[in-house]
Amino acid sequence: MLYGLLLAVLALAGCAGPSPGVVAPPAAADRVVALPSGATLKVAADWTVTTAPDGLILEDPEKQLRIDLVEVDATPGMSAAISAAWSRRRPGFARKELAASDSPGREGWDLLRWTRYETSPGEARRVSAVGVRKGPLAVVALVEGPFAAAQRRSSQIALVQDSLRPAGYVRETYQGRTPRPLDAERVAYLRAFIDRMREAADVPGMSVVLFDQRATLIDEGFGVRERGRPEPVTADSLYVIASNTKPLTTLLLARLVDEGRFGWDTPVVQVYPKFKIGDDEITRRILVKHLVCACTGLPRQDLEWLFTFKRSSPQGQLDVLATMKPTTDFGALYQYSNPLASAAGFIGARTIKPEGEIGAAYDEVMRDKVFRPLGMSRTTFSFDEALRSDHASPHSQDMSLRNVPIDMGLNHSIIPIRPAGGAWSSVRDYARYVRLELARGRLPDGSTFVSEKSLVARRVPQVRAGEHSWYGMGLWIEDVKGIRVISHGGSMFGYKSNFFFVPDIGVGGVFLTNADSGWGVVRAVMLRTLEVLYDGKPEAEERLLSGVRETHAYLLGEQRDWKVPAEPAEVKRLARAYRNAALGELVVRESPGDVVFQFGGWSSRMASKLNPDGTTSFISIDPGVRGFEFAAPAASGVYTRLRLRDAQHSYEYESE
Fold first, then answer.
1. CATH number for position 347
2. Which of 231, 334, 250 is nearest to 288 (CA)?
3. Would you say the pTM of this structure is higher than 0.90?
């Protein structure tokens, strides 16, 4: 525990330097606090902790978020326990459940139940509860606050929930255990496990490479390229690898550091004077490493590129950065920015190719500096090239929660910011990169591709992301039961992926799937591999199955009040077109029994929903893009405005 806390302190301090050359004071460590029963949890140092007879009250520094931890009797059941907790802390609480689900317990608990509650769009608020049971005791965490605050402090909320453990519980650790060899019997077991988990999550196709220091153990595909067609996926099938492009981009940066073009601690404005975000002071403080550290305070802001890609370009997206403002202090909290990470690749490429279109320059530099030298002959940024080859088609869930093929055009949205997530690759190709990581920068022939110093610098924690996880430079750093694991995940429309490696034992793997429900599968396969290696408790399978049940419960609850097709009387109140300065045009198209919203590059059929406050929302329902909610404010007559939100931003569309 102390080792993890020390790493967190170093991570925050390392990212939070007030300016080049000035040493920041060390960040405060988390606090371990106890409930009346002796159950313990960790709380971020800057949160307020107030004791209560039945638990604790936690509040963030701005007093916007509140987490109540309440100990109640579990005997009547967990649903009743959660209701009792609300009654104690919020007498009269009467919100309707949106969704709820029970799962087997973990971390010493017997059972877990989570509940989400209905809110209206105008509230922009998160209200949820998580309850855990140990014998007759239930501990309920009630979480309430604005969406914006919840996203800004998501890592601190996760710290509370992930660290909650019953009195006397001792976590399993892999430290001190000798890893077992992945012999033929264990590999056969893992192969069967992969296919079973793929089917459990309704993933049509998945490709896997798994290897250790001795050999490649699994190198094959499971399932098909596209549901309804017979062609199988293979180890050479191409998938959109999404954010697993980021480690390749930071690998390029490491090579450029070796060449002396800049250092990790070089201010970005010295490398690319046009660089600018929406805060002049932070712009000056951002070093090269900060472009890819998720630690600058710049929040997730993806709607600009998702809605405008048809008329956007790499240079245009670099320019849009100048409108994006930090929402937390520099280095204080984990906040993931795709546009900032894409700037890293484009700016790096500019140091080699100062002329010409910046996207083409990046593509060429990546091909010459990364893909070709590593032998990644099938990896490409060209959609046309990939689609002419053996590739897996994307899938997502329809209203029946079955995965169906979706429009590939949705994934073209990543092209203008492709250093953050636009590469296509195969597991066999990507494994060449993972092997380079394990070889500390050396190629199979023993020659140096990148210096160990520059390569490993990317694995230094830059900001805390969870109880035992941090973000480095385009890499996820995690202590899984005491064993350091480096990984990253990728998510685009209909594609979910992950890779991992364990530096100390030379084991690594790459997992690519062609369905949005593949997210849990790639995580489960990594964790089960570690369980097999270290003779750990078999928890990965049940976590996946619980995740599938929880996702289905949430999606069914979410769509319970959707009216499909949309309520005709509400559709008649829509204008024919709307416009937002940042996101562009929204065109309303009616057909018999249906209404479609058309955006810049994609469209969706829409449902309508009557909100708790009496207002109406229109919600996208097509597979892959379900859940975009356009709220109509209370008004009479034609809806002249529609509002779309992400967690920290609001976009007003006005009728044309």
1. 3.40.710.10
2. 250
3. yes
